[in-house]
From TrEMBL:
Membrane-spanning segments: 149-174, 263-282, 294-317, 324-343, 349-372, 384-405, 411-431
Compositionally biased intervals (Polar residues): 1-17
Record InterPro entries: MFS, MFS_trans_sf
Protein name: Major facilitator superfamily (MFS) profile domain-containing protein
Length: 458
């Protein structure tokens, strides 16, 4: 905690020569509340519960939209190898209650892949629309905390209403609303978890409140967590942070597309994100297509995200971004293609390859977000990151349809997943390496840094 006897603010009546040197936001936070204390830990834990709800709603379709197993009732006219779409209804039956899946509840077993994948695709489409519609509210009128509460409320209500759906169309619409509310959960929870801890614990986190011009709120939050003996005021807060015109995401995007180098970077990293998102969101949905226990497969997939996070966390300062992304996307792609090549015969080997592919996609997912943060300056960083997240979700829009098509031929699921992530991962080849680079605040600073680097290399 900060020493309460040490003045945090400069005396406005003292001479200019006695003014302390401007402090950065990181230095001010650390002086007020330290690097990481119990207050920050408690806030991070509480905010993390939103991510639990987020993950639940994102991957619940693994179970609700799966293809249930069935058995024959009339052995004379039915056998296990028969196509039950050609069998009379009285000759076969589901192994479980029809209400366990949307496929069996509404008789969609013979419907096209577009209809079967509609609920999950609607969810990701809602994430896209919500990301565009709600992102500016989090940056302006509502703020992160209120936006997170609103998002969780929309998700909660729409999730409860799905239990009363009367058709696949009503269910898909409610899943769209659910995704619409879910769109800003990740970003808001991330900022709320990181903006009040020191740089030692958060690496490069968004300097959102100050950079966006909301200094009064920043002072209030620092006071609530810091020592009671520390007094601060908006007019006297001494920070070495440039004033911001508080642009929204659309203004920032206009800035991004004006510069050829920034537009090229944005399109390339979004292409990579699209390929990774298709596998990251689609791979868990395909577990029901494997000859393996669905529930055990979901557990293994969830556990595989832990080493992916640990690799990113511990080796972030040593891994080269471009090489890592090319390597992990290629490994994921090769493993996925091999699953389609093996067929259903080798179930145990298929699940091993599936875990390798999903683990690689998870690691590439994390690396892409870090790479995006390092590729763009502060003035447009959040907007660039939002666009990459949108590209990741856009890949997820197509995944459910491909998973449904892959129930008949695994090439349309695992095969296409492998080709897409492998090919789209190559877009990083034209991007600069950012490991260990200094983060810039303005477009001019970033451009000057690039020209200096090119001059040195040349």
């Amino acid at each position: 905690m900060a020493d309460s006897t040490q003045p945090l603010l400069s005396d406005s009546n003292s001479s200019e020569s006695k003014l302390p040197p401007p402090r950065t936001l990181d230095e001010t936070i650390e002086q007020c509340i330290g690097d990481f204390g119990w207050a920050q830990f408690l806030q991070a834990v509480l905010v993390s519960f939103a991510w639990v709800f987020d993950a639940q709603q994102t991957f619940i379709t693994v179970f609700t939209d799966s293809q249930p197993t069935w058995h024959c009732l009339d052995s004379d006219r039915c056998n296990s190898s028969s196509n039950f779409c050609t069998l009379p209804n009285q000759t076969w039956s589901w192994d479980f209650n029809p209400h366990v899946s949307t496929i069996s509840e509404w008789g969609l077993q013979c419907a096209g892949s577009l209809v079967k994948g509609l609920p999950a695709s609607s969810f990701f489409l809602g994430c896209l629309v919500g990301g565009l519609a709600l992102s500016t509210l989090a940056d302006s009128s509502l703020g992160r905390k209120n936006m997170l509460l609103l998002s969780c409320l929309i998700m909660s209500l729409s999730s409860m209403l799905t239990a009363f759906s009367t058709s696949i169309w009503v269910y898909a619409f409610l899943r769209f609303l659910n995704g619409f509310g879910r769109a800003t959960v990740g970003t808001c929870a991330l900022v709320l978890s990181t903006e009040l801890v020191g740089k030692k614990w958060r690496g490069q986190s968004p300097r959102w409140l100050i950079v966006k011009g909301r200094k009064e709120e920043a002072v209030s939050i620092l006071q609530s967590i810091g020592s009671n003996a520390i007094t601060m005021s908006f007019s006297d807060l001494c920070l070495d942070v440039q004033e911001s015109s508080n642009p929204d995401v659309y203004d920032a995007l206009r800035i991004l597309v004006k510069k050829p180098w920034s537009l090229r970077r944005l399109l390339a990293v979004m292409a990579v994100g699209f390929g990774i998102g298709m596998v990251y969101y689609g791979m868990p949905l395909t577990l029901s297509n494997l000859n393996f226990n669905l529930y055990l497969g979901v557990v293994f997939n969830a556990l595989s995200e832990l080493p992916a996070f640990l690799i990113t966390f511990f080796f972030m300062n040593t891994i080269k971004r471009r090489e890592a992304l090319i390597g992990f996307t290629a490994l994921s792609g090769i493993s996925s293609v091999l699953i389609a090549s093996l067929g259903q015969q080798l179930g145990s080997l298929q699940i091993v390859l599936e875990l390798v592919s999903f683990f690689s996609a998870c690691t590439a997912f994390n690396m892409t977000l870090i790479y995006t943060i390092e590729l763009f300056p502060t003035c447009v960083r959040n907007s660039a990151l939002a666009m990459v997240r949108q590209a990741l979700v856009f890949g997820g829009v197509f995944s459910p349809v491909m998973v449904a098509a892959g129930r008949e031929n695994q090439f349309w699921s695992y095969g296409m997943f492998g080709l897409v992530i492998g090919l789209f991962g190559l877009f990083v080849v034209g991007l600069p390496e950012t490991r260990g680079s200094v983060l810039c605040d303005t477009m001019d600073e970033e451009e000057t840094k690039n020209l200096t680097k090119e001059h040195i290399i040349g």
